[in-house]
Structures are given as C-alpha cells and as structure tokens.
Specification:
The chain is α+β, with helices and mostly antiparallel strands. The chain folds into three domains: 4-186 and 259-308, lpxc deacetylase, domain 1 (Ribosomal Protein S5, domain 2, 2-Layer Sandwich); 191-253, no CATH class; 324-462, Roll (Thiol Ester Dehydrase, Chain A). 21% of the residues lie in helices and 32% in strands. It has nine helices and 26 strands. The chain has helices at residues 78-86, 109-118, 181-184, 194-202, 224-233, 258-271, 289-307, 324-330, 376-392, and strands at residues 4-8, 12-17, 24-31, 38-42, 50-52, 58-60, 66-69, 72-74, 92-96, 120-126, 130-131, 136-140, 145-150, 155-161, 171-175, 191-193, 215-217, 241-242, 247-248, 278-285, 342-346, 350-356, 401-413, 422-429, 437-446, 449-462. The strands form seven sheets. Strands 11, 12, 13, 14, 15 and 20 form a six-stranded mixed sheet that branches. A six-stranded antiparallel sheet has the order 21-22-24-25-26-23, covered by helices on one side. Strands 2-3-9-4-5 form a five-stranded mixed sheet, covered by helices on one side. A hairpin with a 7-residue loop joins strand 24 and strand 25 (437-446). Helix 1 (78-86) crosses helix 2 (109-118), helix 1 (78-86) packs across helix 6 (258-271) and helix 6 runs parallel beside helix 7. The longest helix is centred in the middle third of the chain and has 19 residues, at 289-307. It starts with a strand and ends with a strand. This is Multifunctional fusion protein. GO terms for molecular function: (3R)-hydroxyacyl-[acyl-carrier-protein] dehydratase activity; metal ion binding; UDP-3-O-acyl-N-acetylglucosamine deacetylase activity. The active site is at residues 289, 367. Zn(2+) binds at residues 79, 262, 266.
C-alpha cells in the first residue's frame, strides 16, 4: 500500500446517463491538494455546492448510496469512489453537471481507465491511514447480513453472497492487494434479479438502466409474452433468455463469480465514505449498501474514539518523508544540537518527527549520572525542531529562511525519557500564520504514552 498521498495530474471527464435518475451528466475528475479527500461538486446548481464524500452525509440507500450536503444531492456514488480507492488516490474533486455519476457499463472500469489516462501524481504528504485496532462487527439477523473488520497492517477484503437462487449459487470473491483492484474487481458489473426489475421501475428507480449497464438475472421461468413486455420496459426491440445461464439477452459474464466481485466493489466504494484509507481485514457476508454504510459508521465512531489520544503510528520499515540529510539541509542545527533523526509525516497543518534516544547523547554523562534521564529542555528542543520543519514547509524556498522559537506556553513533562526510547513528536498549527508568526501545539510520545507537551510560538525570518 502507498505511503504517500496521491492525486491526478490533470482533469479528465466521462459522460453518460445516471442509473437511477436517468439524467445525462458529465463528470470531471480534477487534481486536489493534500488532505483534500474526495469531494463532489454540483456545478449545475446555484453556488456550485460541494458535497463531502462522508458517511454522515448519506441520505438514501435505495439500491445505491446517495449523499447530500448544503441542499446538493449526489446519487449512486459507490462505483466512482471504488475507482478512486482502487487506484489509491487520496485527493480528487469530482465535478458533476447533474445529480448522478454516469453508470457507464455498470462497473468502475471506465472510471479507472479515465483516471489512469489523467496520470497519477505523488504528493508530499503521508497517507492518513486508520489501522483498525479492535474487532468491529455489524449484523442484521433479519436479512442474515454480517460484516466484520479485523486488525491487519494491510487492506484485504473477502465477500460471500448467497441469494438462494437456482441461477446463482453461493459465490465468494476476495482481494488481497488493493493494487489489484483495477485488474480483478473494477470491471465487475452491477446486477439485478428479474423479480426486482419491475418493482424498481415502479419505485421510480433505474430510469437509466438497460442491458448495456446491468446484468439482469432471470431467476424464474418466463413466457414469450413477458419477454415482449420486458423488451418494452428496457426500451429494446427484443430480449431473450439463455435458459442454461439464466441471464437476460444472453449477456456474457466477465467472471463466473462476477456478482460477488461486484459486491466487493460496492463494499470498497461505500467504505470510502469513512473519510480515510483504512488498514483492516474486511469480511462481508451478503452485504448491501445499507449494511455497508452502517458498518462504515461503526468504523468512523472507532476513529473518533481513538482521536482523543491519537498517537502517531511509526513503522520503522517505511521510508521517511525527510531523512537526516534532508533535515540537515533545512535546519541550521548541527551536533550536538541536531535533535531529529527523521520526519515520517508532513502535510499542510502537521508534522511528525522521530528522535532516537541513545546513551551516547552528550548530556547523559552530566545529567543525573547513574540515572540517565533526558533533560526536559532537550525534549522541548527536539519538539521545536520538529515544528521548525512544519514552519519551513509553508514557504516554497525554505533554505532562505530561519525558523525561530519565540514563545512557550503550557509546557508539561509527563514521564521520564530514557536511553533506548524512541520519541515520536507531533506538531500541528493551532492558528494561521500572520506576518511570519504562527502558533503550534506539540506533543511527544514514547510507547503510546504522552511524555511531554507544549504550546509554541514560532517566527519565520528571511535570511539577509
């Protein structure tokens, strides 16, 4: 899985009819800055309102996932979002001149193709993964639906479907590498059972549905007269049924388990509404949009529960955003006052730095000999240097500026820092920069324990 955030290199558009609304629309994917996430924009409405792709904005789950914000509604977002997740894109603005993304062929593959044509661009910020750290379970006993998330340092999905149908037996699909989504999952098309079809039309749904964008599964015997009725319903001169396959108009499946694969595609798209890329093993039995969204809400609640004392995750196997050589190019400090070994996260508002504390630090021989403890002022210096990197990141030419610490407030030292500890420092802006002055909050952690914290004021001064 990628460590850096990604967007697309240029704008790209697709056009077509919406599955449920039947309204033609053009959807344009545009590059977006770091930490932007996925946002839809209704450019056909006054003020061109933006709708965040967020599970809290879900307002309807009638055979698709619909979101709404500021009076703007976007129908059937799951296939679009699945394509973005499948390409590990983080920041994209999706403009629409209608109420619903084009259904295209009923899968995500044409969105994938368009996005790949636009090109993918790596951004200078780490992906804000949420690693599921406890068992999360959703169950609907009435419909025999279950979804679960288990801790895993990866993103893997397994889906099982069983419709008690003589046409479709129990099917399984899995994805062990999100990077394989375009090849293994993206071309799996949406489907509907014949017994559902007329009911959906009566509910004023699938106005844009036809045999080019959905698989119709014939799960009962039909007479010739009914085939004529179905042809009229689907605006086709004629339809037929392959009695052996049970697929209307003899549509050829892309995979024997295409239905299970499409349900996995839907799960990927609906879980994108959590708002962050996740690491977990996802298991889903007979999932649907309502269950997917309810499950996504449970995971989002877990994220919020952890946010109060969110310790930055540090994986020493991952390459840093800035190594010691790049840090030395940005900061003026040198031994014995160069305190930060690497930067593992850096975005527009926050930074995470690593300090490996060893017995070879020059202050240990004189600071509590026989009971070595890292001086609080050196912890504060390490935190300030981490914040200095964040302050320098606000200008395009950081080599031409000095970052100065000019104020400290609310400083607390919570636990002793000892040789052998790895201190994770996180600093974030608490106010916008004005005239070169900015406020930050800094915290230091060892083994998930808070060891120090302070509010800092920094000044960015141009070198003469």
């Amino acid at each position: 899985m990628n460590t850096k955030q990604q967007t697309i290199q240029k704008a790209v558009s697709v056009s077509g009819v919406g599955l449920h609304t039947g309204v033609s629309a053009t959807m344009t994917f545009l590059p977006a800055p770091t930490n932007h996430g996925y946002k839809f924009q209704r450019i056909d409405l006054p003020g061109q309102p933006i709708v965040d792709a967020d599970v809290d904005n879900v307002v309807d789950l009638s055979r698709g996932t619909t979101i709404e914000q500021s009076g703007a509604r976007i129908h059937t977002v799951e296939h679009t979002l699945a394509a973005l997740v499948g390409l590990q894109l983080d920041n994209v603005l999706i403009q629409l001149d209608g109420p619903e993304p084009p259904i295209m062929d009923g899968s995500s593959i044409q969105f994938i193709n368009a996005l790949q044509e636009a090109g993918i661009e790596e951004q200078n910020a780490t992906r804000n993964y949420f690693e599921v750290n406890e068992y999360v379970h959703y169950k609907n006993s009435e419909k025999d639906i279950e979804l679960a998330a288990l801790p895993l340092n990866d993103y893997r999905l397994t889906v099982m479907v069983d419709y008690n149908s003589r046409v479709i037996s129990s099917q399984h699909a899995y994805l062990n590498d999100i990077g394989q989504f375009p090849e293994q999952i993206a071309s799996s098309r949406t489907f509907v059972f014949l017994h559902e079809l007329e009911a959906l039309y009566k509910q004023n749904l699938i106005k844009g549905g036809d045999l080019t964008n959905a698989i119709v599964i014939v799960d009962r015997d039909v007479e010739d007269g009914e085939l004529d009725y179905l042809a009229d319903l689907l605006h086709k001169p004629k339809v037929s049924v392959n009695r052996r396959e049970g697929i209307l108009n003899n549509t050829q499946l892309h995979y024997p388990n295409e239905m299970a694969r499409h349900k996995l595609l839907d799960v990927v798209g609906d879980l994108a509404l959590i708002g962050r890329p996740i690491k977990a093993q996802i298991l889903a039995a007979r999932p649907g949009h309502a269950a997917n969204v309810a499950f996504a809400k449970k995971i989002k609640k877990l994220i919020q529960k952890n946010a109060a004392n969110q310790v930055p995750h540090y994986d020493p196997k991952q390459p840093p955003v800035l190594d010691i050589n790049r840090i030395s190019q940005l900061l003026p400090h040198r031994y014995p006052f160069q305190m930060i070994d690497k930067i593992i996260a850096l975005d527009e508002n926050s930074v995470v730095g690593i300090k490996n504390v060893t017995m070879n630090e020059p202050f240990f021989p004189g600071h509590f000999p026989g009971n070595p403890v890292m001086p609080g002022v050196m912890q504060l210096e390490s935190m300030a240097q981490t914040g200095g990197i964040l302050v320098l990141s606000t200008v395009p030419d950081p080599e031409n500026y000095w970052p100065y610490l000019i104020g400290i407030e609310n400083c607390r030292f919570r636990r002793n820092v000892l040789p052998g500890d790895t201190v994770i420092f996180r600093c974030e802006f608490t106010s916008p920069m004005k005239r070169g002055i900015v406020k930050m909050q800094g915290r230091g952690y060892v083994n998930t324990n808070l060891v120090c914290e302070a509010d800092m004021i920094a000044s960015l001064v141009k070198k003469k």
